[in-house]
Structure to design on (139 residues):
């Protein structure tokens, strides 16, 4: 769970000095709420939507055109790997970061095969996300 009181400055911006548009995907409303609150406190980040399933995620990416998708793996319907594959097959696909409880070599390999740009562990969400976003945006 993301502690809303923790603040980690995300000091990167997208071209044109616009905020990074983020879509959060997780079937846990508690995680979505905590992550949304924490991201809302960051500079240059805009949460443009949330989704609670892989199917909703694919639809939301097509509709909202985020720069970054933070994707859970275990969800109803299609899982995060399948949703990532579908999203990465779109024209002008956003960056996708898998956010999960487990970090294994096989999980990282499957995330890479699905087209994910990165994998971070939920327990390290606050500490891991800022450098990942900076790397993905070239900031």
């Amino acid at each position: 769970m993301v502690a809303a009181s923790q603040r980690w400055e995300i000091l990167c911006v997208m071209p044109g000095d616009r905020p990074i548009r983020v879509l959060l995907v997780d079937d846990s409303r508690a995680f979505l709420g905590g992550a949304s609150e924490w991201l809302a406190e960051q500079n240059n980040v805009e949460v443009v939507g949330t989704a609670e399933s892989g199917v909703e995620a694919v639809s939301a990416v097509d509709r909202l055109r985020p720069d970054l998708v933070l994707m859970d793996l275990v969800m109803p319907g299609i899982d995060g790997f399948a949703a990532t594959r579908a999203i990465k097959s779109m024209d002008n696909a956003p960056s996708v970061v898998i956010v999960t409880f487990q970090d294994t070599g096989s999980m990282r390999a499957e995330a890479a095969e699905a087209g994910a740009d990165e994998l971070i562990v939920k327990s390290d969400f606050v500490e891991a996300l800022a450098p990942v976003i900076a790397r993905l945006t070239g900031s």
Observations:
- Residues 27-137 form a domain with the Rossmann fold fold (CATH 3.40.50.2300).
- The chain has five helices and five strands.
